[in-house]
Amino acid sequence: MSSLEGEDEQMSRSLNDIFQEGHTSLQNLDKRTDPTNSPEFQAEIRKCMKLFEDATRLVSAIGMFSSNERYEEIPTDHLKYLLLPYFLAQLTQKLCGGDRGEIVNAAEVYYTDFLKRCADYGLAEGVPQQLVKSTNGGGDAPGGEMAMLMRMAEGRNAKMQKFRQKKELQERIAELKVAMDREDINEDQQREFYVKTLKSCAMECEDDLASVAMEKQMLEFGSKMGGREEAKPPPRGPPLKPVIITRDAVQQAVYGRGYPSLPTMTVQDFYDQRVAEGIFPDPSKAPPEQKQKSLQNMTVEDDELEEIEKEKLQEADDVDYLARARRMDEFKDEVRRGDGNRHNRS
């Protein structure tokens, strides 16, 4: 196994560990009975978010997903990582304190990214196409009273169909969840569990985005009503910046235009950070004897190759090589060793 493959395997194991720790923390949050705004609860939320953010950066670093494939082409073990933006969106909405408008905007970025990704991979079944198109930058539907009535009727039918689909999905997910806890679960059951969970979350995302839009309107209305008499806001901490799945510097630039606050990392940025944290080995800190020996071997090999090449050219009476050799001899005869640019020398 090459060193690069070993690093990828180590990174993959680390990613799975980080994701599982974050998922366990997320499940524990649902079991807590203390108030959401308590310091202990908020600290656990931020800890869980940090784990999922690290997992997102790792997914980006190893280039796990491609935008030109369907979910059927994604390996079973990778499907669960598509849930990262949805988990981060839910956690972000639970944050208390700070700039609420910033929190809501960050949650909207996560939900939008998740739904668009699900649509790209063919996992947004049961989600109205109008909503999917709006997350991809589509315009509003045309107006008119008749068109509005038709949309209302379609929306009512879609809600009834969505309710039935969600119920069926949740029942099947509950059955598969029991199987997921067993050691003898097969890959087909794992895959079905992840796919149905993603489809269920994509359907929930419709309600989540509607809730975010409503809260944004309320915050905007409250800001207008507050006027100049609004109390001075408390000192702000570091800005809340969503972390979404990207693969390289090009994608980093693209997402930067769409979401100005997004901090994304290239593979080299991430690797350098992990080296600084002591997680990955630093190639520049190899044992001195090993580095010196390697350097000497490389120098000897280069010299030997150069001598062999010279002998081949001489034996073949290469015209260009012989001409260069004669010019070099003449140059050495005319220019003494040490001569050259002596400008500004005392």
Automatic annotation (TrEMBL):
* Region annotation Disordered: where it falls in the sequence: 278-299, 327-346
**Keywords for this entry?**
Coiled coil
Q: Which GO terms describe its cellular component?
A: cytosol
Which terms does the record give in the GO molecular function aspect?
Answer: protein phosphatase 2A binding
Residue ranges annotated as transmembrane are none
In Gene Ontology terms, what is a biological process of this protein?
regulation of signal transduction
Q: Which residues form a coiled coil?
A: 159-186
**Gene3D superfamilies membership:** TAP42-like family
Q: InterPro entries per the record?
A: TAP42/TAP46-like_sf, TAP46-like
* Protein family (similarity comment): Belongs to the IGBP1/TAP42 family.
The entry's protein name is Putative immunoglobulin-binding protein 1
UniProt organism field: Lutzomyia longipalpis (Sand fly)
Species lineage: Eukaryota, Metazoa, Ecdysozoa, Arthropoda, Hexapoda
